[in-house]
Amino acid sequence: MSQLPPLVPSARLYTPGDMPQSRFQSMAGIDASFRRGGEFVGQRLVLSYNNLNETQFNLFAAHYTGQNGTFGRFFLSPETWSGLATRPVPLNSDYLWRYNSPLVASHASCGRFNVEVELRAEPIDLADVVIDGSVANPSNPVRIYIVDGLTAAATPTRELVIFGGGAA
Questions:
Q1: CA quadruple 20, 26, 29, 32: dihedral sign
Q2: DSSP string of the chain, one letter each residue
Q3: Phi and psi (nearest 5°) for 134?
Q4: Please, how many CA atoms are within 13 Å of residue 87, restricted to the half-sphere of its CB?
Q5: Taking the model in full, what pTM does it have?
Q6: CA 20 to 30 Å from 22, out of 45, 66, 110, 114?
Q7: Mind listing the pLDDT tens digit for each residue in 50-84?
Q8: CA 29/CA 137 separation, integer angstroms
Q9: Where are the domains of the chain?
Q10: Cβ of 80: how many Cβ atoms within 10 Å?
Q11: In the predicted structure, residue 155 carries a pLDDT above the cut 80
Q12: Judging by DSSP bridges, how do beta strands 112-123 and 44-52 pair with one another?
């Protein structure tokens, strides 16, 4: 899986999104909400990189091209959140990112470029399901379900194992 180029951004603008939900109002005027998922959706991240040299600029151009523009998904590099004690989004567990729009590059000065990328997060497909748990890694985040657990490790604990086989 690809990773965003390992450069520290000059500025970040993060929008946390929201939990998917449905809201209803009864005829009596009482509101009710129903959560429709377990992962935040609509997360956005705008990263600005100032005064990049041509080699650094080419990293972004090649990455964007390698992702087929806004089509491909990738992980964030650790440098994306450099300087923060607590990251608002885990690096490589439950979210992948994709370009929300084409990257914007401007010529800053002789041999220097400014680049801005707008990204959107997407929960990883089947984020709460591990298929064929025989290869489940104990260091992975806790998953709610394991289908075909076979010899999956007992830790971290799982809430439900379907066709456990030899899963502990």
A1: negative
A2: --B--S---SEEEEE--B--EEEEE-TT--EEEEE--SS-B--EEEEEEEEE-HHHHHHHHHHHHHTTTTT--BBPPGGGGTT-SS-SS-SSSSEEEEESS--EEEEEETTEEEEEEEEEEEEPTTTTEEESGGG--TTSPP-SEEES-TT--S-S--SEEES-TT--
A3: -60, -20
A4: 14
A5: 0.67
A6: 45
A7: 999 999 999 999 999 999 999 998 888 889 989 88
A8: 48
A9: 11-123, 129-162
A10: 23
A11: no
A12: antiparallel
Task: Provide the CA 31 distance to its chain's centre, in angstroms.
Answer: 32
> Is the separation of the CB atoms in 5 and 55 below 8 Å?
no
Q: Residues in the chain, how many? A: 168
- The Cα 99–Cα 119 span in angstroms is 5
Structure tokens at 83: 């300087």
Tokens of 31: 């509101």
Q: Which position has the token pair 């450069």? A: 7
Which amino acid appears at position 49 of this protein? Y
